[in-house]
Amino acid sequence: MMLRGGFFLACAMAASCIVTGPASALELEPEEFVAAPAGTTALLGYAIYAHHDKLSPVSGPDLDKDTNMELELGIARLAHYFNIGNTLALVEVLQPFGSINNARVSGTKLNSSSGLGDTIVAAAVWPINDAEKKTYFGVTLYTTLPTGKYNRHDAVNLGGNRFVWDPQIALSQGIGKDWSIDLTGDVIFYSDNDKAGAGGVQRLTQSETVQVQGFLNRKFSNGLMLSVGYQGMRGGKQKLDRIDNGTRTHFDEARLVASKFVAPKFQLMGELNHQFNVKGGFRQDVGFLLRGLYVF
Q1: Tell me, what CATH number does 82's domain have?
Q2: Domain that holds residue 11
Q3: In a designed cystine with 273, which of 158, 168, 202, 287 is the match (CB 3.0 to 4.6 A)?
Q4: What is the C-alpha to C-alpha distance for residues 258 and 225, in angstroms, rounded to an integer?
């Protein structure tokens, strides 16, 4: 799992631009739900860069002249697998940190933000965990806590000042010796932010977001795995004091991932991604991710 578009960056097409921070979405990584044995602990570190090159309103032309934003993000993640009776389970915690810089819309500069993002805690179970048939079906609940840096007077914040709940179902299925597919679906729910908008005294509400993701994975004899993936999000209509502010969580994303265990317990993974068909938010033109995974 990864945060990024995840750190979905939204803009309110109202009097001012509002860039909210962590964890509107949680992204699947290749074979994320191929279960590890009970008793396994995994430590992961992520380095993420994303360049946003335009703002795409729900209606009207894109704002691409003198419009951009840079996201530099790190995530520390700790996960532990254990059994509940005969069912495999997992608990984990994620802590994002980093900065949002060079944010501007049509030449209007916005503030920067750096520090800690919102903490995420999660719990998962595997009702189906069949290594022989290479079939893994998991159910997860991600909860985002409003712990990140947030200033009601700033347009740009790493923290969201609200709770986010993301129940997710996921299937990973091996196909023959070298191929596998990953599929997930989730619906994301948001609490209100009562310190938003002009002067930080307005109430921000957001409707549910639906997300689907998938990967096709190919393993090679040297241990390298290449993956082609898709992520799509729809919904997420925002209102400030019950007035539509034009923000949505609506985009499609193409993803290319390479991963390999460079040591028996250490994996490196790299990803290149690009968003398209964006409505109601900043478009991420290009994103890069590097992840290290150590199991013990």
Answers
A1: 2.40.160.40
A2: 2-295
A3: 287
A4: 6
